[in-house]
Write a structure and sequence with these properties.
Strands 1-3-2 form a three-stranded antiparallel β-sheet. Helix 12 packs across helix 29 and helix 19 packs antiparallel against helix 21. The longest helix has 64 residues. It is rod-shaped. It contains 32 helices and three strands. The protein starts with 6 loop residues before the first helix and ends in a 6-residue tail after the last helix. With 847 residues, it is mainly alpha-helical. Keywords: Actin-binding, Calcium, Coiled coil, Metal-binding, Repeat. GO terms for molecular function: actin binding; calcium ion binding. Pfam families: CH (PF00307), EFhand_Ca_insen (PF08726), Spectrin (PF00435). Belongs to the alpha-actinin family. This is Actinin alpha 3.
């Protein structure tokens, strides 16, 4: 081993060594000083002020030296050199005959001796070389080439080297080392070959660089493998995040497009159009929505799986883009279901409204037709002045006829009011053809007012001339007076018997049957009135026959003939059984509807409790510690299959529900379960079984990743269930009980890990993560930084070339695309900041 005090003797033996040492030591110093962005050209001149000497020691030791003096005076330079020499001595190095003054004065021998001391301490301390044979090992160049070939066989084809070409061998080694190993050329091939005994210090200095280069390569390989592993995990997680973002965006976009359709409350004007809207809504519930329910469930499962993988790889939790959290999707889905429910209620309400409108419109038309038929020609009749040339008997007849007309007019007042009331109701219900209804109603009202005016005017005229004539035949008058109200009663009876009706229950149709029976009970009295009225006509005929009076024309006091009364009476008798038949048919329809109600209720009262029972059973399975996780998964899969097999019952209930809606059945007193209740319960059951299976899958993933045994998992579950059971029995919460056992300070630390959102509730998955996290061996940001530092040759930055040389292409490009540019003094243009990149990988800064 060469000692420091051999220096003088070596230089005296061969002064030519000084040339070799100056070149070698200068190149060695520059290989380290370039890391600090500086170089030296003349070793004794550039180290005289001590500044670059102190900088060299800081670079090779990685430690900070005392602050140098910036002055240019000699004592400033001596002070700086002394600081460097003191630092060398502090490392256990004995300096022989080397003083600061000699270095400041440019003493070549002392300067080279000091540099050799530094090289021995920091580069060759643990390397032994046999001094007597050093030159023999390296002069032919084969040893250097063999050293390179041993560690990097891809750089030199050793089989093609020749022992008789030492200069070629040496130059090959120098060029390969400089180009591929970042070792500068410190020796000259001609000097080594042509010098009987080359300077061993120069050769040892150069060879030590190979030692450090190859040692660094092994560290770089280890560091590269660690980085590749970390980057692979990060790339996989980013892919899962992108898939979640895509699926969440598509689901939210579907909800965004669907809600406006369900919020559209523009009613159609006809029943068929509204029925089509209802059918479109059924298609949405049966065809379009179920796949989206599955997508929503799968989205939650993917999110939970991703978070579990992030926890296992010591990565920060995934935070989706704004508005795409699982809670945001759940809120959007809740809003969709609220709008959906309101839309269905609106559809049914609009169908009832249109049904009512069509009934009222038809009733309005019937009453208007009857009224217009009655008023036809009445204005012309009231405008006649026939009394001016009439005889006494004719005047009296005209007066009585007018009184009968007034009686008839008063009887029709109720119909006119009914017509106006129906028109008003149609307007209030927003009937689509309200303009036609209003025009017809206004025409009838105007005509009615005009009839009243003309009636009063004719009465005044007849009363004025009545004093000139004698009393009109009482029998005709009595017939007219009795026939008019009876005729009006028959008109009303025929109108009622033909009146349309809408009912929704047996009770309502029974009420109509009761009213009809009451009407039939009045028929005997009506028949007596008919016979009494017809008796008057018979009395007239009898008197005419008795006294030989010749009757000419019709009854002068009324347009109602005995034949009219007989015909209408026969019509009433025919309409009664027809009304009976219509009511009985409606009874049959309502009974059929009642059977549908009972059929739906019978199934709903079974399905509803079944769903609730399955929810409770799944809850019990999730907290049961008996058996392994795989057995629990098998049980849950069996539950899932049973639930899927039960879907046919839901479909059958949907069919009965559709039949009920087609029959316009809107209520059911036999069950508290509506189809909406069953649908919501079914969707919750599907979601619950899927979430529970996902929780067990995550537990298996955690167990396998962390190496947890089944017995440990059972102990975790027993402990978790113990706290949960105690909470249910004595009313204490998990955190209160846990704090009693572990202390307030430790409890606060634990709760920040297992309940980051401060909800007061600890899930079993969070409990397992806490129990395994404390002992798990995971990569850290500091480890990744240290690995990058090795690849970067201890620099605080790494270049693009170094990344591409040390890492596989995919991982290298991944780093290059995400690392920020390093900003520092004398940093190259392609310098990248690996420190901030490593922190971002573990959530300590933004990537």
């Amino acid at each position: 081993m060469i000692q420091e005090d051999d220096w003088d003797r070596d230089l005296l033996l061969d002064p030519a060594w000084e040339k070799q040492q100056r070149k070698t030591f200068t190149a060695w110093c520059n290989s380290h000083l370039r890391k600090a962005g500086t170089q030296i050209e003349n070793i004794e001149e550039d180290f005289r002020n001590g500044l670059k000497l102190m900088l060299l020691l800081e670079v090779i030791s990685g430690e900070r030296l005392p602050k140098p003096d910036k002055g240019k005076m000699r004592f400033h330079k001596i002070a700086n050199v002394n600081k460097a020499l003191d630092f060398i001595c502090s490392k256990g190095v004995k300096l022989v005959s080397i003083g600061a003054e000699e270095i400041v004065d440019g003493n070549v021998k002392m300067t080279l001796g000091m540099i050799w001391t530094i090289i021995l301490r920091f580069a060759i301390q643990d390397i032994s070389v046999e001094g007597e044979t050093t030159d023999l090992h390296w002069k032919d160049g084969l040893a250097l080439c063999a050293l390179i070939h041993r560690h990097r066989p891809d750089l030199i084809d050793y089989s093609k080297l020749r022992k008789d070409d030492p200069i070629g061998n040496l130059n090959t080694a120098f060029e390969v080392a400089e180009k591929f190993l970042d070792i500068p050329k410190m020796l000259d091939a001609d000097d080594i070959v042509n010098t009987p005994k080359p300077d061993e210090k120069a050769i040892m200095t150069y060879v030590s660089c190979f030692y450090h280069a190859f040692a660094g390569a092994e560290q770089a390989e280890t560091a590269a493998n660690r980085i590749c592993k970390v980057l692979a995990v990060n790339q996989e997680n980013e892919k899962l995040m992108e898939e979640y973002e895509k699926l969440a965006s598509e689901l939210l976009e579907w909800i965004r497009r669907t809600i406006p359709w369900l919020e559209n409350r523009v009613a159609e004007q006809t029943m068929p159009a509204m029925q089509q809207k209802l059918e479109d809504f059924r298609d949405y519930r049966r065809v379009h929505k179920p796949p989206k329910v599955q997508e929503k469930c799968q989205l939650e499962i993917n999110f939970n799986t991703l978070q579990t993988k992030l926890r296992l790889s010591n990565r920060p939790a995934f935070m989706p883009s704004e508005g795409k959290m699982v809670s945001d999707i759940a809120n959007a889905w809740k809003g969709l279901e609220q709008v959906e429910k309101g839309y269905e209620e609106w559809l049914l309400t609009e169908i009832r409204r249109l049904e009512r409108l069509e009934h009222l419109a038809e009733k309005f038309k019937q009453k208007c037709t009857l009224h217009e038929s009655w008023t036809a020609g009445k204005e012309q009749l009231l405008s006649l002045k026939d009394y001016e040339s009439a005889s006494l008997m004719e005047i009296r007849a005209l007066m009585r006829k007018h009184e009968a007309f007034e009686s008839d007019l008063a009887a029709h007042q109720d119909r006119v009011e009914q017509i106006a009331a129906i028109a008003q109701e149609l307007n209030e219900l927003d009937y689509h053809d309200a303009a036609t209804i209003n025009a017809r109603c206004q025409g009838i009202c105007d005509e009615w007012d005009n009839l009243g005016t003309l009636t009063q005017k004719r009465r005044d005229s007849l009363e004025r001339v009545e004093k000139l004539w004698e009393t009109i035949d009482q029998l005709f008058l009595e017939f007219a007076k009795r026939a008019a109200p009876f005729n009006n009663w028959m008109d009303g009876a025929m109108e009622d018997l033909q009146d349309m009706f809408i009912v929704h229950s047996i009770e309502e149709i029974q009420s109509l049957i009761t009213a009809h029976d009451q009407f039939k009970a009045t028929l005997p009295e009506a028949d007596k009135e008919r016979m009494a009225t017809m008796g008057i006509q018979n009395e007239i005929l009898k008197i005419a026959q008795t006294y030989g009076i010749k009757l000419t024309g019709e009854n002068p006091y009324t347009v109602i003939s005995p034949q009219d009364i007989s015909n209408k009476w026969e019509a009433v008798k025919q309409l009664v059984p027809m009304r009976d038949q219509m009511l009985q048919e409606e009874v049959a329809r309502q009974q059929s509807n009642e059977r549908l109600r009972r059929q739906f209720a019978a199934q709903a009262n079974i399905i509803g409790p079944w769903i609730q029972t399955k929810m409770e059973e799944i809850s019990h399975v999730s907290i049961d510690i008996a058996g392994s996780l795989e057995e629990q998964m098998g049980n849950l899969k069996q539950y899932e299959q049973n639930i899927i097999n039960y879907k046919s019952n839901i479909d059958k209930l949907e069919g009965d529900h559709q039949l009920s809606q087609e029959g316009l059945i809107f209520d059911n007193k036999h069950t508290n379960y509506t189809m909406e209740h069953v649908r919501v319960g079914w969707e919750q059951l599907l979601t619950t079984i899927a979430r529970t299976i996902n929780e067990v899958e995550n537990q298996i993933l955690t167990r396998d990743a962390k190496g947890i045994s089944q017995e440990q998992l059972n102990e975790f579950r027993a402990s978790f269930n113990h706290f949960d059971r105690v909470r249910r029995e004595d009313g204490q919460t998990h955190d209160t009980l846990f704090s009693i056992q572990c202390g307030e300070v430790e409890f606060a630390r634990i709760m920040t890990l297992v309940d980051a959102n401060n909800t007061g509730v600890v899930t079993f998955q969070a409990f397992i993560d806490f129990m395994t996290r404390e002992t798990a061996e995971t990569d850290t940001a500091e480890q990744v930084m240290a690995s990058f530092k090795i690849l970067a040759s201890d620099k605080t930055y790494i270049t693009v070339e170094e990344l591409r040389r040390e890492l596989p292409p995919e991982q290298a490009e991944y780093c290059i695309s995400r690392m920020t540019r390093f900003v520092g003094v004398n940093a190259p243009a392609d310098a990248l900041d690996y420190i901030s990149f490593s922190s971002a990988l573990y959530g300590e800064s933004d990537l």
